[in-house]
Amino acid sequence: MRLSIWKKYGFGWVTGMLFLITLAGHWVTGWFVYVDDQQAHAQPVEIRSFALQLSRDTLENWQSEFLQLVWQVAGLTYLLYVGSPQSKEEDDRLEDKLDAILRSVDPANAERLIRALDEKYPGRYTGGI
Q1: Please, are residues 107 and 100 in contact by the beta-carbon 8 Å criterion?
Q2: Is residue 10 domain-resident?
Q3: C-beta of residue 26 within 8 angstroms of C-beta of residue 55
Q4: Residue 33, phi-psi category: left (phi > 0), alpha (psi -120 to 50), beta (remainder)
């Protein structure tokens, strides 16, 4: 079964639409605030001045929110992918627990099964209790 582009990338489409709607809302409400502020100070309303001001505000929001989130998600994903010490600690702990369970459930065959698994998945953790 072949998915349509709308279903295949549904999350991306919804995220893109939410982004565009909120960006448009930010700029529309920003326009009204800008006009009120200019009128309160008896200054002329200029599109160029508005666009520069809103662009600066938008980029500040992106820098503080979006880039921070991207770093957290992408950075942590990368560190887990390359196998940072932090990501391996949990794997080592889990491996030791599973080895202990195998040894308690089937003491006679546990070591053979553990060796077979280590051979099947080379390069994995080969520690033990």
Answers
A1: no
A2: yes
A3: no
A4: alpha
The answer to whether position 90 is within a domain reads yes
Q: How far is the C-alpha of 40 from the C-alpha of 21, rounded, in Å?
A: 29
Do residue 21 and residue 78 come from a single domain? yes
Q: How far, in Å, CA of 95 to CA of 121, rounded?
A: 13
Other C-beta atoms closer than 10 Å to the C-beta of 45 total: 13
Q: State whether residue 16 is helix, strand or coil.
A: helix
Q: State the residue range of the domain holding 109.
A: 85-120
Would residue 21 count as lying in a domain? yes
Considering the domain boundaries, does residue 126 fall inside one?
Answer: no
Tell whether 67 and 98 lie within a shared domain: no
- What would the mean pLDDT of 62-86 be, rounded to a whole number? 77
What is the distance between the alpha carbons of residues 112 and 128, in angstroms, rounded to a whole number? 13
Q: What is the pTM of this model?
A: 0.50
What is the C-alpha separation between 55 and 122, in angstroms, rounded?
A: 52
What pLDDT shows up at residue 69? 83
